[in-house]
Amino acid sequence: MKRIASNSASLIFASVVFCAAPALAQATRTWVSGVGDDANPCSRTAPCKTFAGAISKTAAHGEIDTIDPGGFGAVTITKSITIDGGGGHTSSILASLTNGVIVNAGVNDVIQLRNIDINGVGNGLNGIRFLAGAALIVENVKIFGFTQRAIDFEPAATSRLVVLHSTITDNQGASGGGVFVQPGAAGTALVELVGVDASLTTEGLRVRDRTNASVQDSVMSENSIGAIAQCATANCVINLERSMVSNNLIGVRASGAFATIRLSNVGVYGNSTGLSPQGGAVVSFGNNQIGGNGTDGAPTSTVPQQ
Length: 306
What we know:
Blueprint: H1 2-24, E1 27-32, H2 51-55, E2 58-66, E3 70-71, E4 75-77, E5 81-84, E6 91-94, E7 101-104, E8 110-132, E9 135-153, E10 159-164, E11 167-169, E12 177-181, E13 189-194, E14 197-199, E15 203-207, E16 211-216, E17 219-221, E18 225-230, E19 236-246, E20 250-255, E21 259-269, E22 273-278, E23 281-284, E24 289-291, E25 301-302
Parallel strand pairs: 1-2, 2-5, 3-6, 4-7, 5-8, 6-8, 7-8, 8-9, 9-10, 9-11, 9-12, 10-13, 11-14, 12-15, 13-16, 14-17, 15-18, 16-19, 17-19, 18-20, 19-21, 20-22, 21-23, 21-24, 23-25
């Protein structure tokens, strides 16, 4: 009888553990809906309400998708994950008086944000604030209405920022506004902007020490400054190619002895000041179009194409 009772108890314990395990498991793909509930398991048929509610139920390297239009709330990301708002409906984050997305992940973590509107409603802090992680990839995202920066990229270690086919507008931070890149003392930043429209903001792009940025097929218009490299103690570079810098107060500025901006096939039009070297190097490949500015300015050097 004692052995039978012991075996029965073991079977009951095993059953409880077996039944409980699925409840604790995280899914590789989860879903959110405008009519969801964060008490749900975030499945396709029982979606969650917010990105924050879904992220705790999503495994590292997994994906959160949206089913229908909705505002899905600010979120803090601490692991590799993809958040995709889908291509056929509006998926937004409203971030009044706060940051839209905070990334504070591990050194090997890659975060992808796709097909999302991030709206600061005129008083939000930063659209995306990146503190740590291996890489942040932003694709087909609109960021607007923030009082500090659209993307505040300040990694503690070496990290990569990629922004593809995205719109940054109406962000009025005193220093930054658009895409702001400043690695920590132990970090470096590799930045790639392709097909980005940065307009009606304080600065389209500002990079600081230990940053190497490549910008292609982009527009920086109607800002205080279109693009600035500001480097006081270590090298920073902006390589600007096949792009337009127009109708800014200052088009392109290289500030500090360690700052370099290279221009290839770039139009610089309608700015109060076109090219503004301030102790840094503005290097032209001789194929740019610079005119119609209050003061055109001139590159510090011109190098032949190869």
